[in-house]
Amino acid sequence: MSEIDYAPSLRERRKERTWNAIHQAAATLMETKGLRGTKIDEITEMAGVSQRTFFNYFASKEDAILGFREPTVSAQMLEADSKRQNTYIFERITHLMLDMVLETIPEGKYSDYRKLAREYSVFQERSKRHIMHCETVLQDFLLTIDWKTFNAQGRKGAFTFLPEGVELSEDAATRAKTAVLIAAAVLQFMNFSAGLPDLRQRQKLISEAVKTFQYLLRDE
């Protein structure tokens, strides 16, 4: 099987440059002028784009400052998950949730976002809505998995996916939503308020946190 080429097209690279220019301009003005002093016309002037272009990328100056990406289950996330195929399923889902959130945050901005959320209620609210959006995207992804086959193989190994057009039961949607809520609860319990540990330490902490939840949820 030939390798899949994930290299972005010229159009995608141009969109990425424009996105970065707007976000960097908004973040720079936020640092120098504060939230109230940051104006959309100044952002567009610094970024070298029109206001129409601005609103093609961001709904508001607050969104441009934060620069959250649209959440998705990316090829990179699935590649990381492939190395966890013998891991307890809720650990895998928790990692997928965290990986998705981190992929939507510009590199190196995690601590900055925590600070903004503490200082400005508008950023705190937007961050909460963004996390909820990530949860919905992950929930939709879980609904594409053939859980009957996956469970039959001991809930380990590669995910198998349902054929297109399969009608899902209400029970499947409830289970997917519950799985994501548990993953979100694990991450909230871990409380990375001081910043993210490195990947190896993060894996250890997630494993320990999930085991704590397992203990609390087990049948007596």
Automatic annotation (TrEMBL):
Task: List, in alphabetical order, the Gene Ontology terms for molecular function in this entry.
Answer: DNA-binding transcription factor activity; transcription cis-regulatory region binding
Q: Which Pfam families has this protein been placed in?
A: TetR_N (PF00440)
Give the source species.
Answer: Rothia aerolata
Domain HTH tetR-type residues, every copy:
16-76
Q: What InterPro entries does UniProt report for this protein, alphabetically?
A: Homeodomain-like_sf, HTH-type_TetR-like_transc_reg, HTH_TetR
Q: Does the keyword Transcription regulation apply?
A: yes
Please provide the record's keywords in A-Z order: DNA-binding, Transcription, Transcription regulation
Q: What is this protein called?
A: HTH tetR-type domain-containing protein
Q: Which residues bind DNA?
A: 39-58
Lineage top rank: taxon: Bacteria
